[in-house]
From TrEMBL, chain A:
This is Purine-binding chemotaxis protein CheW. Residues 26-170 form the CheW-like domain. InterPro entries: CheW, CheW-like_dom_sf, CheW-lke_dom. Coiled coil: none annotated. Residues 1-23 are annotated as: Disordered.
Automatic annotation (TrEMBL), chain B:
Keywords: ATP-binding, Chemotaxis, Kinase, Nucleotide-binding, Phosphoprotein, Transferase, Two-component regulatory system. This is Chemotaxis protein CheA. It comes from Pseudomonas cuatrocienegasensis. Residues 1-103 form the HPt domain. It comes from the Bacteria. Involved in the transmission of sensory signals from the chemoreceptors to the flagellar motors. CheA is autophosphorylated; it can transfer its phosphate group to either CheB or CheY. Its EC number is 2.7.13.3. It holds the Pfam family Hpt.
Length: 182, 727
């Protein structure tokens, strides 16, 4: 596990030309659906995918924190990416999943869950398929995009998970009832 | 064995010893000349020297050796501990701590920084000064002349006989046989001494640091056995020490001869040379030995000693008592085990898991309604509770040790700033989590220094105001509900609210139109970039400090408040959670979520009869007004409330409030899971916990909740002010 987290997944995407294709011919990305669009995540940051179970709502925090779940004795916050991307609240149905990811923060790795409409598949990606994100016209804030993956005549947004789930930012967004401080 | 591990142990041990030494030194200021305390200092220095030798830290060995020699002179009453010497030794301790810190950092002690090197040389020189008269008396050559050699007087064995076989590591451990003999001479006279050089190897093989020597000594003294025995306290462990009282029976000499490693016959001769035995006596002893062998091959040593005890009862009793004491001390020391804090954390985590699993099993059993199963789980949970209760205190330490460190701070700082200030300590036995204690050191240092520097007035001012010349700073700790309270109090000039307000306005922390209560004004002290000191001193008053203190305390989930009476003094009160991993909680439900309120803060639970209380915002309880708040509204829960709601009355630090909840579930052993960074900004939660059914419940942080509820609505939120000051 240490080995996995130690290697920087972005190095592959940022410098596709220098990569030894014989050694790492393909890299795996997990694709999922969110608000009718297809997104992908670097497979190295994904720890597991679990079924949606009733999370506990946490009051007076950023609205994009959907709640907390019990992951084998550890309390893991679940982030609603729909709200984080300023799209809309993610509606829960029977296909809703929680992807457990590990985000390396400044000090320690943080385990977070992200709420997605459905998990699609694991994509095998060669570096040539990775394109830089367009400067404008993106459906979500461009800081959250790492690259655009061109596969099967479609563009899939590869998320920059460190930015999309920046812990300090999520923690800093105040929410809830302001009656206490008003 | 891993050398790094051992080195770490050495560093930790040395740091501990240095702290002990410092404590002892400070104690000596009150009880000068107390032998036990002096011995404690000596032991500390000695152990550090010994251990440092193991790691080849020659610089430390050499330095401690000088210090130890000075201490040795104190022990033998050639020197007295006075203020000057104490001060010097405090510096010696500091310097050693620094050297050890350097070792810890992996620095090479042979190339010291200029400053450290200078300190090292100055201190060594100052120490040597105390040794100077001794070095004149010390020369090795002069030593034998003081000992009467050979077959001098006292043939009839009216003196003690000491058989010493020093262990090979004696010198390396920092003990010098010569020093021991010198010490013997302080309460008796060495009648004769015969060195045993049998173990000396050839010059080529000889290791100059190894002790090969053995001695047979005839020693005339009126001292009791315990005293003589005490001389060898530090070498006993790896050396063979036999002490025979005067007029011992021949059996005893026989026993001695038997137990010593050398050949019996030769030993007899040596004893004779020593003047302990006459030729006739030796003959008798050896004869007895032959007879003894024929009669009973192995006469138990214990029995021989028993026989002796009849004759030498008082001596042996004293010796036994002394030995018992030493043994007791040893066993006390041994009963402490150094454990890696991580292992403890792991254990406490596991206990937490155990409690959750236990609660789950109990709930399942309840649902099944199987009575035997229920009984079994009841027993199990009782045991688990006991495990919890004994596991939790493992991490708890008394705050006294941390408090005592401030004796030194106060002593040094009061000298530095030229004020006469004493420190009084109370509540040192209050226990709190080790990690909290460790992180309290810096904030407390700052507060104490602040109190001394700004709080306590100058002597002239004190006298003019009719106060005692000596200022006092007081450290106090106590429990209050689920919290620990630590107070730093001074009897100084106190704070002038108007001056603080003026300063705050000048710095733009408060606008001119704002009116603040006295408490709010005092709290401005904790704002970044605030300082009331007109003069900037070396210690504090640079405007950095109190905000850092506040941040440190907040990081521990504690609160800090200040109260002050102008002219009489200031009190800073820190309230800290115990930060136990597990607490007794009270579980309630609001909507879909479970909330845990620490049981200590629950006063009572009542049924909510009328809805009007909620609209009014308070209800009447026992003839008093009780503010109530509906958690469902506070937490934006939009589910429909049940027909019957309940009120949990919580109290903390004089604040009381009623929390309206949907349902009371009951007491619940709560394993605290930390909030994590994502929820760092959350102002009402203390953590999470996992219920028996696997769902997550939220732990309410009642003190923070109450403070926020009680905060006057007109006040500017703290966050706003802080961000302003950052700009």
């Amino acid at each position: 596990m240490n080995e996995l987290t130690a290697s920087d997944p972005r190095a592959h995407a940022n410098a596709p030309g220098q990569r030894n294709t014989a050694e790492h011919p393909r890299q795996q990305y997990l694709s999922f659906m969110l608000h009718g669009r297809c997104y992908a995540l670097d497979g190295l940051s994904v720890r597991e995918i679990i079924q949606y179970g009733r999370p506990t709502k946490v009051p007076m925090v950023s609205p994009c924190i959907h709640g907390v779940i019990n992951l084998r004795g550890a309390v893991v916050p679940v982030i609603d990416l729909g709200l984080r991307f300023a799209l809309a609240k993610t509606q829960v149905d029977r296909r809703t999943c929680i992807i457990i990811v590990e985000v390396s923060d400044t000090e320690a790795a943080q385990t977070l869950g992200i709420l997605v409409d459905a998990v699609s598949e694991v994509l095998e990606v060669v570096p040539d398929e990775m394109n830089p994100p367009p400067a404008f016209g993106n459906p979500i804030p461009s800081a959250f995009i790492q690259a655009m993956l061109h596969q099967r005549n479609d563009f899939i947004i590869v998320l920059n998970i460190e930015n999309a789930l920046a812990v300090a930012e999520i923690a800093g967004q105040p929410g809830g009832n302001n009656a206490l401080t008003a | 064995m891993d050398m790094d591990e051992v080195l770490k142990t050495f560093i930790a041990e040395s740091q501990e010893l240095l702290l002990q030494m410092e404590d002892a030194l400070l104690q000596l200021e009150h009880t000068p000349g107390d032998a036990d305390t002096i011995n404690a200092i000596f032991r500390a220095a000695h152990t550090i020297k010994g251990s440092a030798g193991l790691f080849g830290l020659d610089l430390i060995v050499a330095f401690t050796h000088i210090a130890e020699s000075v201490l040795d002179r104190v022990r033998s009453n050639e020197l007295q501990f006075n203020a000057e010497l104490t001060a010097l030794f405090l510096q010696v301790g500091d310097h050693l701590a620094r050297l050890i810190a350097l070792v810890d950092a992996g620095a090479d002690l042979n190339t010291l920084e200029v400053e450290v090197q200078a300190t090292h040389e100055t201190l060594s020189e100052q120490l040597s000064y105390y040794l100077a008269p001794a070095t004149a008396a010390k020369p090795v050559a002069s030593q034998p002349t003081r000992i009467e050699r050979g077959n001098a007087s006292g043939l009839s064995a009216d003196h003690w006989h000491l058989s010493l076989r020093f262990g090979p590591d004696t010198l390396r451990n920092g003990m010098d046989p010569l020093g021991l003999f010198r010490y013997l001479n302080t309460f008796g006279r060495i009648v004769s001494i015969v060195p045993l050089l049998d173990r000396l190897p050839s010059a080529a093989e000889m290791d100059p640091e190894t002790c090969y020597l053995g001695f047979e000594i005839a020693f005339a003294s009126d001292a009791d056995k315990a005293t003589i025995d005490g001389t060898f306290e530090f070498v006993r462990e790896d050396s063979l020490i036999r002490i025979l009282p005067p007029h011992s029976k021949s059996d005893e000499y026989l026993e001695l001869i038997r137990t010593l490693p050398e050949e019996d016959m030769r030993l007899g001769e040596i004893l004779m040379r020593c003047g302990t035995l006459t030729a006739a006596e030796l003959q008798e002893v050896l004869l007895a030995q032959v007879e003894g062998q024929q009669r009973d091959e192995a006469q138990p040593i214990g029995q021989v000693l028993m026989e002796q005890s009849l004759v030498q009862a008082p001596v042996i009793a004293a010796a036994l008592q002394k030995q018992q004491q030493i043994k007791d001390n040893r066993s006390n020391e041994n009963s402490l085990i150094r454990v890696d804090a991580n292992k403890l954390d792991k254990l406490i985590d596991l206990v937490g898991e155990l409690i959750i699993a236990g609660a789950g099993a109990r709930m399942t059993a309840k649902n099944c309604g199987h009575s035997e199963m229920l009984e079994a789980t009841e027993l199990l949970s009782r045991l688990v509770e006991e495990v919890r209760d004994s596991a939790l205190p493992l991490r708890m330490v008394q705050i006294g040790a941390t408090f005592n460190r401030f004796q030194r701070v106060v002593r040094d700082v009061s000298k530095e700033i030229g004020k006469d200030i004493s420190l009084s300590i109370s509540g040192g036995e209050t226990e709190l989590d080790k990690s909290v204690v460790e992180r309290m050191g810096d904030p407390l240092t700052h507060l104490v220094r602040n109190a001394m520097d700004h709080g306590i007035e100058s002597l002239q001012t004190r006298q003019a105001n009719g106060k005692p010349a000596q200022g006092n700073v007081c450290l106090n700790a106590c429990h209050d509900g689920g919290n620990i309270i630590i107070e730093v109090t001074d009897d100084g000039g106190g704070l002038d609210p108007q001056r603080i307000l003026a300063k705050a306005r000048e710095r733009g922390l408060v606008s001119d139109s704002q009116t603040l209560t006295e408490q709010e004004i005092f709290n401005l002290i904790f704002e970044p970039g605030f300082s009331t000191a007109d003069q900037v001193s070396n210690l504090s008053g640079r405007g950095v400090g109190m905000d850092v203190v506040k941040r440190n305390i907040s990081a521990l989930r504690g609160t800090i408040e200040l109260s002050s009476t102008l002219g009489q003094g200031t009190r800073v009160r820190i309230r800290l959670p115990l930060t136990l991993a597990i607490i007794d909680g009270f579980l309630v439900n609001v909507g879909q979520a479970g909330y845990v309120i620490p049981l200590e803060q629950v006063e009572e639970c009542i049924e909510l009869h009328s809805d009007s209380a909620i609209t009014r915002g308070h209800l009447e309880l026992h003839g008093q007004m009780l503010p109530v708040v509906r958690l469902r509204e506070l937490f934006d829960d939009d589910s429909t409330p049940p027909r019957r709601e309940s009120v949990v009355v919580v109290q903390q630090g004089g604040l009381r409030a009623g929390l309206v909840v949907d349902q009371l579930v009951g007491e619940f052993q709560t394993v605290i899971k930390p909030l994590g960074k994502v929820f760092a900004a959350c102002r009402v939660l203390g953590g999470f916990t996992i219920l028996g059914d696997g769902s997550v419940a939220l732990i309410l942080d009642i003190p923070r909740l109450l403070t926020q509820l009680a905060a006057p609505r007109s006040a500017v939120p703290f966050e706003t002010k802080q961000s302003y000051a950052h700009e």
